Amino acid sequence: MATTLGVIADTHGLIRDEALSALAGVSRILHAGDVGTAAVLEALEAIAPVHAIRGNVDLAGAVADLPAVLTVEVEQARIYLVHNLADLEFDPATRGYHAVISGHSHRARHEVRGGVLYCNPGSAGPHRFRLPVTLARIRVSGHELEPEIVTLKV
Fold first, then answer.
1. Beta strands in the chain (DSSP E)
2. Strands 28-31 and 50-52
């Protein structure tokens, strides 16, 4: 049986109803930083357990206490969360990671490099840089990962 993860980043204190609807039914939510406020995490927790890291704007309040990086294990998959991919200081494949989740750029994309899935869900917060508002879902089956970018109609 597969597990579906919701992946979100760069909310900057804004949690949209469209994001909550797109995350309905996921087993866990991974937030890759720039949360903005604890209210975002509370809204996400109402859907599923949340694993979150802080981003460069998470400087005050409860979000400032989030870890800078985090390892999450789902089924047989090891997933590394880092806000800015430029801060990744090791080869995830050699450390047994199956995926790296990041945010920061506000650009949604995913690709597999060296057997590791790199996924940036884009930004689910305020419109910025004329980019679409997005998040991602990842279907996990064992250590196999199937990502999907979801564009929110806002």
1. 3-8, 28-31, 50-52, 69-74, 77-82, 99-101, 109-113, 116-120, 134-141, 144-151
2. parallel
Q: What is the pLDDT of residues 51-85, one digit of tens each?
A: 999 999 999 999 999 999 999 999 999 999 999 99
Q: Give the closest residue to 108 by CA, choosing from 133, 83, 85.
A: 133
User: Beta 144-151 vs 134-141: how paired, if at all?
Assistant: antiparallel
d(C-alpha 6, C-alpha 142), whole Å: 17
pTM above 0.90, yes or no: yes
Q: Which of 99, 94, 100, 112 is nearest to 143 (CA)?
A: 99
In this predicted structure, the answer to whether residue 5 has a pLDDT above a threshold of 80 is yes
